[in-house]
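Could you join me in thinking about how sequence relates to backbone shape in a protein? We need material for that, and I hope you will provide a protein of your own picking. Once you have written the record down, we can walk along the chain together:

…
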Amino acid sequence: MSSRAMELTVERDLPPVLADLPATALADQLGGPTLFDLRKPDQPPLFVSVLLHGNEVSGWDAVRALFAEITDASTLLFLGNLEAAAHGVRALPGRADFNRVWEQGESAEAAVAAEVTTYVKAANPRMALDIHNTTGENPPYAVISRLDPETLAFAGAFSTRALLATQPHGFQTRRFAQFCTAMTIEVGTPEDPSSTTRATGFLAALLADNAPPNGARVPESLSLYETAARVTLADGTVLDPDMQRFNFRTAPAGTALTRSGSLHATAADDRDLGPEYFGTNNGLAVLKRPTMLAMYTGEEEAARRDCLCYFLEPVT
């Protein structure tokens, strides 16, 4: 795959022709990451980010369905890794993950992320929404990095499940939550048409109403979890796609999470948690105790580039 120089472009108008283009065609039209500044006077904007991962297209398809509403509202719309989207991949080989560079880094992606952050922070957004597809078979859920009532109310308006994510470092919502209400929505797999429907409905509601849902009251139906450990593959380990059935469910003690090989588990402060979670059985890493999983992916490339899954603990 050939690679272009990655530089940010800021545009003041959203060309209607873009609504006819799939994510794979955006790079030819726009060149690279593009921030559309569609703010209205005296109206704090809604920041919306899509395609930080190039193969997660439901966010862009939701934007396509809501062009008129986005243009009429006060918005900042960021289209991220268009080069990866052109190839239908999360990120190009050898390039940084565009959702791991928002707090630091020396890559071209980190430079663009820093530029976007500075621009958006100066605009005093009312909220920042980052739309993603899941890389494995997960129910829809929200990802947040703080627990104020407004953030929890928005999370509960999207799903009955929310993750308080303490890792990985460098994801956009974690950075933007330092200056505004921010959340990621994981809407389902890109192959599932209901993922786009889900993203479109939630984005439409945010565009139509500036106020937090339910007067910023936290829904009683919201189940909140924390990412207790990030699980990665050891060299030579073979994952087991069948384990996706335990996403947001508890896998019993003794469950082998791979078909062969061992796993690593780390805390947000990089402590090794492997001995707390894993025993061994015939060379396999098996759970020592019942453990809730999330984001287990059956895609080996995604698992090796990022992680296999996360272990969750409930937040009370």
